[in-house]
Batch of 2 targets.
Target 1
Amino acid sequence: MEVLVINGSPRKGRMHTGRIVSHFIEGMKDAGANVDTIYSIELNIGDCKGCFNCWTNTPGKCIQDDDMTEVLGKMANADILVLATPVYVDGMTGSLKTLVDRFLPHLKGRFVIRNDHCRHPIRDHIRQGKVVLVSVSGFTELDNFDPLINHVKAMCKNMNREYAGAVLRSVAWIMEGAAEQGVQIEPIYEAIKQAGRELVSTGSMKDETLEIIRREFIPRDTVVELTQGFYNEK
Ligand SMILES: Cc1cc2nc3c(=O)[nH]c(=O)nc-3n(C[C@H](O)[C@H](O)[C@H](O)COP(=O)(O)O)c2cc1C
């Protein structure tokens, strides 16, 4: 099984998105997946120019010759596409969105009706597997992920891929000083690995596993208190 992880965090593998996704990858590899990871911030990917040449003059090919050519090849071969991103102003990061916009060469221009909606046919060589969202947030409430989840679900309909769920960790920054706050971090990391194993071996992640990852681990008032004096406010 081929997995493509696209990590959209500008802090790449170093910080919270990277830490969470690395445990998820470990689990997927345990279950036998081949995992390729790319960092959107490192790539030379221009904004989509909206010219539609990939549907008209150069079908299936973008007129821009940049790193997206290789990424499109990787996306075409991915049984599972993992989109990993911190919540940035209620959505995905800019570099990830820029990359996703450039996926249009995988589609044909005409419309068809799919699931009672107008959509584009997918070109023949594209695998139509699953998409998983892995995300972290600074705020505490789980509904901070809602706009992003809805976006990824809608994107799946555009890509004709199955939305396979989300690995979510709010107030991810607490994980750095977890022990001081009495937060048990190992069971969370173990559940993240387990979610990766489940996805590859059964095709889905159990809700009980995802719940261990996303459940509240520190009261909100404590979080608010911890942020007082944290930033050098003038
Ligand atoms: C530009 C920017 C916008 C952000 N917007 C939100 C937001 O809307 N909601 C939220 O919960 N956290 C927000 N955050 C916090 C990040 O999601 C959080 O710091 C996350 O851990 C960053 O991921 P990283 O550690 O992989 O860099 C924002 C952070 C930045 C830098």
Target 2
Amino acid sequence: MAKVIDSKIPAGPVPEKWKEYKAHQRLVNPKNKLKLDVIVVGTGLAGASAAASLGEMGFNVINLCIQDSPRRAHSIAAQGGINAAKCYQNDGDSVYRLFYDTVKGGDYRAREANVYRLAEVSNNIIDQCVAQGVPFAREYGGMLANRSFGGAQVSRTFYAKGQTGQQLLLGAYSSLSCQVNAGKVKLYTRYEMEDVVIVDGRARGIIAKNLVTGKLERFSANAVVIATGGYGNTYFLSTNAMGCNCTAAVQCYRKGAYFANPSYVQIHPTCIPVHGDKQSKLTLMSESLRNDGRIWVPKKIEDAKALQAGTKQGWEIPEEDRDYYLERRYPAFGNLVPRDVASRAAKERCDKGFGVNNTGLAVFLDFSESINRLGIDIIMQRYGNLFEMYEEITDVFPGDLANEINGVKYYKPMMIYPAIHYTMGGIWVDYELQTSIPGLFAIGECNFSDHGANRLGASALMQGLADGYFVLPYTIQNYLADQAVWPKVSTDLPEFEEAEKKVDAELDRLLNIKGKRSVDSIHKELGHIMWEYVGMGRTAEGLKTGLKKMHELEQEFDKNLFVPGTKEGLNIELDKAIHLRDFFTMGQLVAFDALSRNESCGGHFREEYQTEEGEAKRDDENYFYVGCWEYKGKGNEPELIKEPLEYEAIKVQTRNYKN
Ligand SMILES: Cc1cc2nc3c(=O)[nH]c(=O)nc-3n(C[C@H](O)[C@H](O)[C@H](O)COP(=O)(O)OP(=O)(O)OC[C@H]3O[C@@H](n4cnc5c(N)ncnc54)[C@H](O)[C@@H]3O)c2cc1C
């Protein structure tokens, strides 16, 4: 019999759901001295906000991260901003409109009720962060400023220069530090969760590795929350920080937590193009640049060829010979179409030979028109640090005047190309953010919850902070209220003993392979397979080939890996080997999911399923569900379980960004 998933969505029209839900909370009063312990793994925006809030509410929190400080979590990389439905611009924004844009942006594959709740708490996030002192950009008159991001026709993105994630994390970190000082949060930096411990069917603790001493340690609690980020680094080259990994999530999956929609991977249109095989990282140029930057390739193939050969420069091509292909194809949204649409359009132009650099895999992002209109000072105020970052990497400053043709000034454009950036898929959670393992919760990028098949820009920070400040602190109480009568389990239980032994044996196994290949060389090869067969354009045949190649490479990993050093003390190569082991599981999961979904939607583009104009062709009749995968052991195909989607407030239709 098919398994049924209880997503715990309360009944009733969408706008009422969350209010009803809140009214039914059984509050575990902070002052009631229940001494309930919660482990929060991760100190990114989701983890830090959750740990701070739970500490503030009276729980005893154990908070771990792999970096030497919570302030170095990957969330600091976020540049562009965070969405909220404040409607400060008086442009017709509303909670409903943010909800609608997000569901549509996700290509109608998100859970409607979750997204409504997200939109509803979005405004609280801004208030919370302002109260913490986050220095959001302001208008001259003092009001918080906004800019626009893809998939929206209103201006609802709050930002702090191009450093929004860092400033938000400093805010969350100061709240967290208050709780550390108050003794409610115990912080463990340079600790990596290696396994979740299940006792009598419930998550009761974790095994973590002290990354400095190499020692394995046991932690027990009444509930475990993972906030460990996404799995973009499965592709080796991505915009994610190099430390990002999916080990915690994959271990939860191996222990029985369902993994939802793994094939929904976001490829961001505006990244600095790959320029060699020695790179280990790609750099994002924030989507905010698309507010004022215009994306183009030459109209004439001979111009493209000259650009590729280096005999012509972009600024030598006059206005009438430029193809602003997003403005041409999507007049209503222009350069601000959602990321999946913009990325595919760039690929389409480059595949047709119109790429503008020596590899043919780049398009221009040009500020000439906006600099001519607004002046360089205004543009620098908006994007100064991004221009400087671009110059540092490419030696080209996008604000430099380069040419004048017929009285029109042309500035040096940026070159950009799509790259792996964010993962919409993640650990399956119900409406309460609880996974399919009771007592195990997942928040932030590591869960699958709110973005459907494509995340809109500036919505990840919104979701991470919504989960951490305003959703989990309520919903976890439903679980913990029943836990009040249960004593915290001892870490001497056989379940802890067994889990620790298994992790230890795994470390020995990896060290004792003593082969010839470094972790990075194998990871890079995995990345090539992922990009080629499980990347921007997928086919059934390619996915099968990719799965076969991944399986062979995993065998090579098991037989020919070389990890220097020992288990004791700091061993970064050993830590990377663990991550790579889990990237293999993840990569195959992405491919299985992509193969099972015979349609194109959002970030999942199956070339067999496209319209004549090359747009994604959904199949709502057969694939209107969340695809959840259950682990069935190494080398075995996981089992697909479906959570049907139900929409009450929004009419499911074909996405249209043209008019
Ligand atoms: C370059 C870039 C720019 C971006 N810009 C924006 C933007 O402008 N707006 C927006 O909304 N989104 C943006 N995003 C996306 C957004 O930054 C992320 O989705 C979000 O910050 C993820 O937050 P998180 O708390 O879920 O995870 P992370 O910030 O990734 O934090 C993960 C935490 O888990 C810890 N951890 C991981 N594994 C383990 C383990 N096994 N054991 C212990 N701890 C572990 C880490 O130490 C870290 O503390 C951007 C992403 C990138 C890459």
